Description:
InterPro entries: Std1/Mth1 (IPR035189). The strands form 2 sheets. The protein has a two-stranded parallel ribbon. Among the domains are: 38 residues; 172 residues, no CATH class. The chain has 435 residues and is mainly α.
Amino acid sequence: MNGSYHNKTTMTTSNSTNFVNAPFEYSERARDTIKKKLLFSQKNTNASNRKKSKILSRTCSDDVASAYSAISNQSSIFSNPLTVTTTSSHFSSSSVPTEKIVTTITLEDALPKTFYDMYTPEILMSNPLNLFHNGRPKFTKRELMDWDLNDIRSLLIIDNLKPEWGDNLPSITLPNNQPNASNINFRFQLLPLNSSDEFIIETLVTSDLYKEANLDYEFRFTSARYTVALARRRHEQMLLQQGVPPNQINKKELHLSKPEWRNIIENFLLNIAVETQCRADFKQQCSQFKKWKQEHHQQQMQNFSNLKKPHMPPPSGLPLYTIVEEDNSDENMSSSKGRSSSSLLRKTLMKNLQSKTLKTSFNKNNTSSSNNTNTCNNNNNNIPDTHNINNLNLNNKLGKITLAKEEKADIWAHCQSEVYQRLGLDWKPDRMSIG
């Protein structure tokens, strides 16, 4: 038994001789060093993970914000592809895009694509047949001169700036292949919904609407002021119907809705368009009326020049009917005195005497008439042609035909009535005095 225990002890001792047994103090020092290294490595790993987590979180936040900005600006994205920026797929702070500012834009992109916010629901939902395919009411199309051009200009009056424009309105360009592209210019005009009356009037007066018509400033200003005043009255009546106290209605600014805002622009456009059409028609009607007066005056002059004085030779001797009458009277006298022979003789002598006198007088008249005819013919050769003189004087007077003020006023009222009736307007002619 003791031998077996000794053998076990010897085996254990021999096995332990295969390892190096360091002193106790070295073992503790080594253990502490290993712990410090492990703790330091773990701290670095945690710090690195936290840093990566922060970078990842910040990058994700930037990407989400960029995506939200793109969604909120859908109108600008589809209107101009050049402003679209794509989100980077890798997480890097240097990949965040910078938004480009648009300084020029084509006319096609400048015009609105939808019009549902410019008109009241009552107009848009009343009858689909009264709308064009783009959603605009058919009353926005008027049979007036240069209407389409100036309707486009009116659509370029906007109420706010788009985000991709920055703080400035971009310029509008036309395709080079479009006719008269170099002669027609388009531009934006900013007219906010909360503009004052004075600013609205100034914007309308200085706009490009019918600028080719050269309407005087006074007329444009009067039309704009009347349009804005009418819109203000309607706006105030609407607020009163909604229960807004009169003392809370702002008298300096119009906080317009988009349909009210658009209605002001279209009413001003219609006023100056009708005025331009009436003035063009008035000018044409006056020219035609002057031409008619010239032709009428010329016809009267020609009729007057064609009148000729009839040829009547001076009387010489007794007419034949006088002798016949005297003869008849003598016959009556002789018949009443038929019983007297002396009266018959006297009658016969008287007839013979009168017969000789009549022949002599007839020959003398023929000679005098022939002489007078030759004299008149000779004098006519020395007299200038009065017909040619009248035509010459008429041609000199044709350019001097003028119209009286009453005639101009009647023509102006007639032109206005025709335009109003053609457009279906219940306006009344103002009988303006045109100088």
